[in-house]
Amino acid sequence: MNTYSNANEPNSTPPSDAFKFGRNWQRYIENYFDSERVEIAARSLADLIGEELTGKTFLDIGAGSGLFSLCAHLADAAKVISVDVDPDSVEACRRLWRSIGSPETWEIFEGSILDSGFVSRLPRADVVYSWGVLHHTGDMYTAIRNASTLVTPGGLLCIAIYNRVTEGFLDSRRWWKIKHRYNHSPRWVQRAMETAYLGYWTARELGGRRNPIRVASEYKQTRGMALMTDLIDWLGGFPYEYATADEIVSFCRVACGLQELKITRIPTAATGNNQFVFRLSGPH
């Protein structure tokens, strides 16, 4: 499931059982989005990139709600390009774009990073950002390779990819089965699974002697996100691929010609995201 793809023209249409990320992001915009979350997200973006965005081109692949595209615009990026394959995500992104006056320096497109024709029409960017997205395309390594072709020489590729876990009850393979089951179930079963997962999360917090109510209220400190948005995203996020941090670094070096600048690793037994910042050699 996680071998490097050699397909010349992968299927760029989302699978019929793909999770509807856009609907989840629209609920986030309606129920949680506010100026405080924008400030938190902006700090997390700046911490990850480690460079000023002023005067640069920022390409957001899998823009979702549009939150980080908005942050890049507010950080004085010369150009922001938001891309998402989900029309509901595109509309959520446009909603934020309209809320700040529809700036001409921020463009939004619907399309797949697996579509070579679409990718060829996108401009290269100083910062290509795709946090927690490329492992949901159904062809993760092709998606990473295509994203890397959009980086200008000397520019950055910033990605986050689910960690491969091979031990324990809830390892990566079991999570694949859970997500597959969720996306092949009627809505009433999905709701039951969401309730069960929230109960599991609560029990885990209590088991770690943490107050679930406090953790939930402080959760926005994690990139400006909302707990329920992320719980549903994690439970439903399908297609689902994963890799160790070393596997991603090796692929990006060999197949994409990138050099790692920063790697933020999670514990080896955790299935969350490892974060990477790579640079494409060239003028800087």
Explain what you see.
The protein is an alpha/beta fold and 284 residues long. It has 2 domains: 21-165 and 239-280, Rossmann fold (3-Layer(aba) Sandwich); 176-236, no CATH class. The protein is built from 11 helices and 7 strands. A 7-stranded mixed β-sheet has the order 3-2-1-4-5-7-6, sandwiched between helices.
Largest sheet: 7 strands, mixed
CATH topology of the largest domain: Rossmann fold
CATH homology superfamily name of the largest domain: Vaccinia Virus protein VP39
Measured as a percent range, the helix fraction is: 40-55%
User: What integer value in Å does the Rg equal?
Assistant: 18 Å
Number of strands: 7
- Structural category is alpha/beta
What's the end-to-end separation, in Å?
A: 36 Å
Shape type: globular
In short:
By secondary structure, this protein is an alpha/beta fold. Helices cover 43% and strands 18% of the residues. The chain folds into two domains: 21-165 and 239-280, 3-Layer(aba) Sandwich (Rossmann fold); 176-236, no CATH class.
Q: Which short descriptors sum up this protein?
A:
2 domains; globular; 284 residues; disordered N terminus; Rossmann fold; alpha/beta
Write the layout of secondary structure elements.
Blueprint (H helix, E strand, L loop, with lengths): L20 H11 L3 H15 L7 E5 L5 H8 L4 E6 L2 H13 L6 E5 L5 H6 L3 E7 L8 H9 L2 E12 L9 H12 L3 H21 L4 H7 L8 H10 L8 H10 L3 E7 L8 E8 L4
Parallel strand pairs: 1-2, 1-4, 2-3, 4-5
Antiparallel strand pairs: 5-7, 6-7
